[in-house]
Specification:
Elements lengths: L4 E5 L4 H12 L3 E6 L11 H4 L9 E5 L5 H11 L3 E4 L6 H4 L3 H20 L6 E7 L22 H20 L2 E7 L2 E2 L8 H13 L6 E3 L5 E2 L2 E2 H12 L6 E4 L5 E2 H11 L8 E3 L17 H7 L7 H14 L4
Parallel strand pairs: 1-2, 1-4, 2-3, 4-5, 5-6, 6-11, 7-10, 8-13
Antiparallel strand pairs: 9-12
Helix pairs in contact: 1-8, 3-5, 5-6, 7-9, 7-11, 9-11
Bound molecules: NADP nicotinamide-adenine-dinucleotide phosphate and guanosine-5'-diphosphate-alpha-D-mannose.
NADP nicotinamide-adenine-dinucleotide phosphate (NAP) binds next to α1 and β5.
């Protein structure tokens, strides 16, 4: 039997890199969309690309861009993927207030473009869309589930809400196998350095080594439902193995403040975070989601998925990974 073929947009990102490892381990041939940058931006998948048994044999990278639908359509035609994981897009909520048009173009319109391509495929294709808890923004109740109202509180959240609804419409209208993974925050040592958890884990490691003296942050009272990224990509894969397509909330069901994460991270290196953290207003967002905490009962029941790494363990493993990096 030929290997199943997956196509990943966002393969160079945090989730894309873990998902690639998972799919390769399960016998897939993996194709990933990469975009041109002035510096090479493949660090999260370099270990796979340079493995002679993998790079060019089971893992293939293709230049393209979410905004270039013609090249995406060509890739679908030549690769004929059986599973598509659509993870790419501007993923920073705070920055979406500064670059709203680019954010909406990449997240909302580009997803529409991909769904239109999907409609034209002759072979059956299963499609995962990386939706987000940000679609709930200012929810009327907590925890949220797949039926909670969409009340986004940022341009990013609006774009994800648009794309999530489009996926639902295309599933209903055309019978396409399209799943929304409504994921709450998931983190790892591969998290981008301008997201709060990684900013904190890096600072804890660097301050403990005498390489940094303070850490500037915005709103410390914000709360998030934080899980561990490798566990979330497992759920993405499981969604596409189901007999029918559906939407699933992916979350731990626990909510913690930034202060809680600081305490866990700095505690790992025996430091009191209060001595090092200073407030910087430029990191405060014009609006913030509130009470974002997910109810993943459906994923537990139908996908047999339950996250096991909770906030404190997550903070510890992220700091440990940053401590293990050579001092720079
Ligand atoms: P990430 O680390 O920021 O990765 C984003 C990926 O998208 C990167 O590979 C990036 O490429 C690519 N990309 C961005 N714009 C693109 C464009 N115009 N054309 C082609 N590729 C483009 O994000 P992540 O944390 O892995 O998250 C993956 C997806 O899940 C995102 O859509 C995010 O919004 C969503 N999500 C994430 C979380 C979370 O907590 N991590 C929760 C809910 C939803 P470069 O490497 O070239 O920048
Ligand atoms: N990034 C950042 N930097 N956030 C800070 C800072 C700071 O210096 N100080 C406080 N925060 C607060 C933010 O205001 C926010 O309330 C919280 O920390 C988390 O911010 P991020 O780590 O940037 O994540 P996010 O929750 O906004 O977005 C992430 O999770 C979403 C799912 O809920 C991203 O991965 C999104 O792509 C994803 O959809």
């Amino acid at each position: 039997m030929p290997s199943p073929t997956a196509f990943i947009t966002g393969i160079t990102g945090q989730d894309g890199s873990y998902l690639t490892e998972l799919l390769l381990n399960r016998g897939y041939v993996v194709h990933g969309l990469v975009r041109r940058a002035s510096l090479f931006n493949r660090s999260r998948i370099e270990h796979l690309r340079l493995d002679p048994a993998i790079g060019g044999k089971k893992l293939f990278l293709h230049y393209g861009d979410l905004n270039d639908t013609t090249s995406l359509r060509r890739l679908f035609r030549t690769l004929q993927p059986t599973e598509v994981y659509h993870l790419a897009g501007q993923s920073h909520v705070g920055l979406s207030f500064e670059i709203p048009e680019a954010t909406c173009q990449e997240i909302a319109n580009a997803t529409l473009g991909l769904l239109e391509i999907l409609r034209d495929q002759e072979q059956p294709v299963r499609f995962y869309h990386a939706s987000s808890s940000e679609i709930f923004g200012a929810p009327l109740s907590a925890p949220q589930n797949e039926d909670s109202a969409l009340r986004p509180a940022s341009p990013y959240g609006c774009a994800k809400a648009f794309a999530t609804n489009l996926c639902r419409v295309y599933r209903e209208a055309y019978g396409l196998f399209v799943c929304n993974g409504i994921a709450y925050n998931h983190e790892s040592p591969r998290r981008g350095e301008n997201f709060v958890t990684r900013k904190i884990s890096l600072a804890a490691a660097r301050i403990s080594r005498g390489q940094q003296t303070e850490l500037s942050l915005g709103n410390l009272d914000a709360q998030r439902d934080w899980g561990y990224a490798p566990e979330y990509v497992e759920a993405m894969w499981r969604m596409l193995q189901q007999p029918s397509a559906d939407d699933y909330v992916l979350a731990t069901g626990e909510s913690h403040t930034i202060g809680d994460f600081l305490a866990a991270a700095f505690g790992t290196v025996g430091l009191e975070w209060q001595k090092y953290v200073r407030f910087e207003s430029r990191f405060v967002r014009p609006t913030e989601p509130v009470r974002l905490v997910g109810d993943a009962a459906k994923a537990r029941a139908k996908l047999d998925w339950a996250p096991t790494t909770k906030m404190a363990a997550l903070a510890r493993l992220m700091v440990a990974a940053d401590l293990a990096e050579p001092a720079s």
